[in-house]
Design brief:
By secondary structure, the chain is of the alpha/beta class. The protein has one domain: Glycoside hydrolase/deacetylase (TIM Barrel), CATH 3.20.20.370. Helix content is 38%, strand content 15%. Helix 1 links the parallel strand 1 and strand 2. The longest helix is centred in the middle third of the chain and has 17 residues.
Amino acid sequence: MRLLIVSADDLGLHRDINRGIFLAHAQGVVTSASAVACGEAFEDAATILREYPSLDIGVHLTLIEERPLSPVSRIPSLLTRDGRFLPSYRHFAARLLTGSVSPSDIRHELRAQIDRVVGLGRRVSHFDSHQHIHLLPGVWRITKELAKEYGVRWVRRPRFNSPFRSRRSVTDPLFRLGLNALSAIRIGGASGRNQHAATSALHLSGHLTEPDLLRIVGCLHPGISELVTHPGVSTPALRSKYRWGYDWSTELAALTSPSLRSAIHAHGVTLARFSEC
């Protein structure tokens, strides 16, 4: 049996991302979303979430790019001088590897983010993170502890099938290979409490097209797979705010395509949610 969880990341980052995720669920195949509790559009997402009880909700643990929920004085080792998180995984990993990040700061901020999502009155079904930083040494241990504390069984272990394709910087392949190695270690040491699903096409994040999705659906292995997506509505405001080069609207169109739903049925794939598995 092949079960497919179609996840949408970044809920709560921007209103135009929120719009895309909810459309991809209501009119398409998205079954799960990961909420950025410290995102500027989190309240907008929370308002709309009440209309969609069928959408699984997880926490997109965030320690880069955004502003924290915790007081600046409480988590100084995670922040820049202007009170924001560090700008990328490269900066965070460098600070982490030099021993300059306090585990108590990480735990305090991540707990604040989880509590904000739990406060919506919805069951949290899974954890993942912005730029996969929850896999990094130190952060992973805290993530596992919090998963146990909050009764969360599913924690993403991302794996890049094509580390060298669609890279955005010269360091991306090295980071992806490192994440693959860390994922293998995490999966090998996983207990029955924390489960994982195979991830597909992570190297195409932000650029998934309908042909990509049709190909992925046709090649799924037996078991549980997670397709990580980034639907949205590509507006000038969104592109100006997040200069990632993502084509949010293309992913939204692909995820709401009737051809995709037909292919899922034709290949005997069952759409699923983390909370059901």
